Amino acid sequence: MRVTRESLLRIAKETAQERAYNDPEIIAAYLTGSLLNVDPMLGGTADIDIVFVYKNKPQQVREFVKLTPDFHLDISRRTKDEFKSPRELRSDPWLGYEMYDPILLYEREKFFDFVQASLRAGFDFEQPPLMLQRCRKLLSHGRQIWMDLTEVDSAGPKEVRKYMKSLYHVVNAVAELSGPPIQERRLLLEFPARAGAAGKPELTATAFHLVGANNVNADKLKTWVSDWKYAFKLASENANVDIRIQTTRANYYEKAIIAMLEGEIPLAALWPLFHTWTLSADVLDGDHLKFWQSAAGDLGLLGAGFAERVDGLDHFIDDVEIILDEVAKENGLETSVGI
């Protein structure tokens, strides 16, 4: 079956209308994510990111629905109360951008226009004051997570997972200087352009180093794919695994990883491969945990290497804070020292 952006957009609209028709709690639905781009495919796969807004708190926050082996719905649910404060929405690094320029799929009451008008009021959403607020929130989240790692004696999947979450926030603190946050699958693929747009191309090498890219090459990553794939499959059968680890999303990750390994930035595949492998390893034991441990050791993310990575992350956070202060000074705004 030939799948195009247009056909996926049509599925999104039909899904939103059908669900809203059968659920009076839904007051609006909008499309976000990769389908907002002209070319949403990566490795011939894509997801359809739909957000449903509910009158009251929904029972299920996130849901994945398989369409074909290569395409699925990624449905998120929010409550109307989350959009009550335009001031908070404009400084929210995730929800702010999510609502800034999505595609409206369905509306039962005049919700969307009001929220978006409030968000865009004064045309200052992308201007330095609000931009820096969002970047600093991301950096603060990254720092808070990092602090939990400073007294870790022995690292395993839980600690490495937390480390990668911290790094993800810090990388996006740089990315939001020039646009929306980068989603997980494309993090290292798109970060070089964002670091360049921020006038700090050298940050690319730091980000890659902190995830262990200096210790491996594309050929090494290719040897990991089969162990990653089997770990993903086993973990998806565990009720306690992270919700992102589902067989519905197996091709979504695998084909993207393979495409990146064959692309211009092959080590960009390291993030989706090792991140989802870490989420899987968190509920595994025996040989499959050992395979992950071997890879983590190669990347310098276990043993003494982990402490070094955590120290390096500390310096990275400091460097990004200095960059944000430079932007603040250039625009006559308060620096972090004055916050």
What does this molecule look like?
It is globular, with a radius of gyration of 20 Å. A hairpin with a 2-residue loop joins β3 (62-68) and β4. It folds into 2 domains: 5-122, Beta Polymerase, domain 2 (2-Layer Sandwich), CATH 3.30.460; 128-320, no CATH class. 53% of the residues lie in helices and 11% in strands. The longest helix has 27 residues, at 304-330. With 339 residues, the protein is of the alpha+beta class.
**Quick check: average pLDDT?**
94
Count of individual domains: 2
Strand order of the largest sheet: 3-4-2-1-5
Class derived from helix and strand content: alpha+beta
- Report the major sheet: 5 strands, mixed
Count helical runs. Answer: 13
Question: Low-confidence parts lasting 5 or more residues at pLDDT below 50?
Answer: none
Order of helices and strands: HEEEEHHEHHHHHHHHHH
Strand percent estimate: 5-15%
Termini Cα gap: 55 Å
Q: How many strands?
A: 5
Summarize the SSE layout with pairings.
Elements: H1 5-22, E1 26-32, E2 46-54, E3 62-68, E4 71-79, H2 86-90, H3 95-100, E5 103-107, H4 112-120, H5 128-147, H6 157-175, H7 187-197, H8 202-210, H9 218-236, H10 250-261, H11 270-281, H12 286-298, H13 304-330
Parallel strand pairs: 2-4
Antiparallel strand pairs: 1-2, 1-5, 3-4
Helix pairs in contact: 5-6, 5-13, 6-7, 6-11, 6-13, 7-8, 8-13, 9-10, 9-11, 9-12, 10-11, 11-12
Quick tags:
339 residues, alpha+beta, Beta Polymerase, domain 2, 2 domains, 5-stranded mixed β-sheet, 13 helices, 11% strand
